[in-house]
Design brief:
By secondary structure, the chain is mainly alpha-helical. The chain is globular and about 65 Å long. Helices cover 47% and strands 11% of the residues. Strand 1 (119-129) and strand 2 form a beta hairpin. It has six helices and two strands; from the N terminus they run H-H-H-H-E-E-H-H. The protein folds into two domains: 3-153, no CATH class; 157-203. A two-stranded antiparallel sheet has the order 1-2. The N and C termini lie far apart (79 Å). It binds zinc ion (ZN). Residues 50-51, 60, 64, 101, 105 line the site of zinc ion.
């Protein structure tokens, strides 16, 4: 039998992430390291914010560039340090969420836009074959490519769908804990809305 037949390709292709994965992965990470859940949930939308540059026809450039991803949140961190210590935690979480987006998009990001128009890509791949034991072959592909016009983005990728299925299974097993988590999330969201409306000029 040919060796090639036993090689499973593209085990870890980090080229395409859907909004669901962008939201879920960093949020789970923050919850796992026991960051204040309330703040982790409130700031989570920042993890998908960069993809809204697609609305301006500059997908993976306008909001994926180092200026919104690093410079602006770092300015907030410095300002918090100097003037508003109470903003520090939020600024650091914002920096984390925004950076996480670009890390998950490493299949192609115009990180130095508008100074460099090309996308940078960095794609580690893990392959394995079963020829004479289990062999792993790790390769890293990187370089630059043209900034492409945005095609149709997959809202739910293969990985996202697999995670969603896993989530449903976990929910089925841990439904009691999940219900409690849902109640907590709803309470956070409700308090947030109440806070917004309290300041709303109704009269
Ligand atoms: Zn993106």
């Amino acid at each position: 039998m040919e060796t090639d037949a036993l090689i499973a390709e593209d085990i870890l292709p980090l080229t395409e992430m859907d909004p669901f994965m962008h939201l879920l992965l960093p949020l789970l990470f923050l919850l796992a390291v026991r960051v204040d859940a309330k703040k982790a949930i409130l700031f989570a939308p920042l993890a998908i914010l960069p993809d809204f540059d697609a609305l301006f026809g500059l997908h993976r450039a306008l909001f994926h560039s180092f200026i919104p991803i690093l410079v602006i949140p770092l300015a907030f961190v410095v300002y918090s340090k100097l003037r508003r210590p109470e903003w520090m935690f939020g600024s650091v979480i914002a920096l984390f969420y925004l950076s996480s987006h670009v890390v998950l998009d490493l299949g192609g990001v115009a990180f130095f836009w508008p100074f460099v128009q090309e996308q940078f890509y960095f794609v580690p791949e893990v392959q394995f074959n079963l020829q004479g034991g289990v062999n792993f072959n790790i390769s890293i592909d990187y370089g630059m490519k043209e900034l492409e016009e945005m095609g149709t983005a997959s809202f739910l990728s293969q990985e996202g769908a697999a995670l969603l299925l896993l989530g449903v299974l976990v929910l089925a097993v841990f439904h009691k804990e999940a219900l409690q988590g849902l109640r907590t999330s709803w309470a956070v969201f409700r308090d947030f809305l109440a806070g917004v409306f309290r300041r709303w000029p109704f009269k």
